[in-house]
Design goal:
six-stranded parallel sheet; Rossmann fold; homodimer; six-stranded mixed sheet; 12 helices; 12 strands; DNA-binding
DNA sequence: CTGAAAGCGCTTACAG
DNA sequence: CTGAAAGCGCTTACAG
């Protein structure tokens, strides 16, 4: 910038004014500055600008999700990016891999890099560690799961409601032995989906059978193994309700391996690619991950714009999409051994 | 930092030395600084640090891909992130949406934010605009496609080789009317895959029939429409070779709609989720997007570490995975009208 | 080993 | 409208 000022024969302040376009500058001087910029190939250093300017805005935000390569979260990412893009804001994206320690390291590393705000899928037990950064002006919005021990905005799917809808759908098809395959109960969405599952069973006067619940499934392989075990049990479920995309995929593999994909019903939480091409089509409770990202980013920017109202919790509805797998009726019980009186 | 120095009763310089841990400081002073940091909840401003330090390293890089939500690119992203993470480097990620103007805007916006390097999936005709930034010390590595009009490192898949393998596989199954469905020819990988397709046809003495080539397919819908058109033609192809993941998915939808998934063979470039659950399983030429990301990031960091050798082009091999769809033999020609003499 | 001082590249009151 | 000067939060020669 010094070089530009020297070449244009003006002061540093004038160069800054021309580049920022926020103060009136005599047209001829402005032109001289512009041609000096051109001639020297000058690029403004935005970080230095941020450091000095009064609002300290860096035009960058951070996004912490479970895994940038998980289709659900990468679509949330896309949603955030689209809103940020409209404001010329760039996004740091990072994967916490569901590790609390890593979430915290990432949040602090992002704060240290001067981002204006953070959109976080929280996985730690307590986000209180962010208080300090918020006092330094960092804005926070949580997505997919609400924060804990911190009062902040959040955007989540209606997990319990979606799960109830899934189970009601299976009950309506005649099922009573419905298994639940879920992620670790410490994950908010996994807990909520199990809650919805149990509520729907209760509403249908079906007793909860903990033997039909498999939780702590962290990936597709774990889900496949759990599903194989359930299907091989003496009194196997006639339907599966799977708590998220990777679990659904794992369960599909298990069903295929046992040749049961046309026999055992399946409803998955999260829509997945090719769900309509597989046979039977996979009935899902679809979330709208892009909308989650959009709304989270909108909330963040409204805070950055100065909106200081109470924290908000936005709940995005889910949609049940029937494609076949969820409409399979219960198989005749194959010589069911009486495991429970009733 | 001033507050910390004041509370600890030391100079700014000493605080800086303790925090950076790169110079010896008397243990008692160090302890005083540490407790002051703790008491005040001090967080270092890394951007100010970057501005002043001699190497100007920001410990952040930028990644420009076609779409953060495309499974292929999001896995490349993951690969880059994993390598960056090991070095405590954070990654800005952004989608160019295959728009040259946007690629350029993003690259400049990232450079303005002081990133140490850029990993780019180039889509513009000419990356010469980056020369200026590179002279300012920005390191550049290209991934998925080589740069144009700029000498720089690149990591790409063996597109032509993979395409040849795909077509040879179909030829071996007896096919001679093999369609190619590809992205815009301006996209390097799309052009390379068509080249491989044509080379394999030539090697099998099959004349290229341009009526069997559909290019410029920018998404799944376009691919579906193109496939439907091909399948409805008077002399339809007996096999399809699809040039990337979204096109494969579009073609699958078309085959399903016509009930031809067990009749017309299909080999897709890129592996996709559930490819092994669909019936028939989808034969693909798998890339290794994570490895692409890993290698690109490794190359970038080696440059940042001072490696100044000649530009390198790393070619990552592809793997044909036979799952069923690619092994379907040609259907008896259904009253083929003679369209061409021969 | 420690501190006073200069300065990274920029913006912004403050005079003029 | 313009420029000289201070200063954002840091690091780093330079003396001591």
């Amino acid at each position: 910038m010094n070089d530009v000022a020297a070449l244009a024969g003006v002061s540093l302040a004038t160069v800054s004014r021309v580049i920022n376009g926020n103060a009136a500058v005599r047209p001829d001087l402005a032109r001289r500055v512009e041609s000096a910029v051109e001639a020297l190939g000058y690029r403004r250093d935005l970080t230095a600008s941020t450091l000095r300017r009064s609002d300290r805005a860096s035009a960058s935000i951070g996004l912490i999700i479970e895994d940038v390569a998980n289709p659900f979260f990468s679509t949330v990412h896309r949603g955030v990016e689209e809103v940020a893009r409209a404001r010329q804001v760039l996004t740091f994206a990072a994967s916490s891999d569901e590790e609390p320690e890593r979430e915290r390291e990432l949040a602090e590393a992002l704060a240290a890099r001067g981002v204006d705000g953070l959109v976080i899928v929280p996985c730690s037990r307590d986000q209180g560690y962010l208080l300090r950064d918020r006092q330094n002006g960092l804005q926070l919005v949580f997505v997919d799961r609400p924060p804990r021990f911190l009062d902040a905005d959040a955007v989540v799917s209606d997990s319990a409601g979606g799960a109830r809808a899934a189970v009601e759908h299976l009950v309506a098809a005649g099922h009573r032995r419905i298994a639940f395959l879920g992620d670790r109960p410490a994950v908010f969405t996994a807990a909520e989906r199990r809650r919805g599952y149990r509520e729907a069973l209760a509403a249908a006067s079906i007793e909860v059978d903990e033997g039909l619940e498999r939780v702590g499934l962290v990936d597709g392989d774990a889900a496949r193994a759990a599903a194989l075990e359930l299907l091989a049990a003496p009194a196997p479920p006639t339907a599966l309700f799977t708590g998220q995309n990777l679990i659904t995929i794992g369960a599909l593999h298990a069903l295929r391996e046992r040749g049961l994909q046309h026999t055992v019903a399946l409803v998955g939480f999260d829509d997945i690619v090719l769900a309509d091409v597989v046979e039977p089509g996979i009935t899902v409770v679809a979330q709208d991950p892009r909308a989650l990202g959009h709304q989270a980013a909108e909330l963040l920017f409204s805070r950055l714009d100065g909106n200081a109202g109470d924290s908000r919790l936005v709940v995005v509805p889910t949609t049940l999409i029937a494609r076949g797998s969820g409409e399979i009726p219960p198989a005749r019980e194959s010589a069911p051994r009486a495991r429970r009186r009733r």
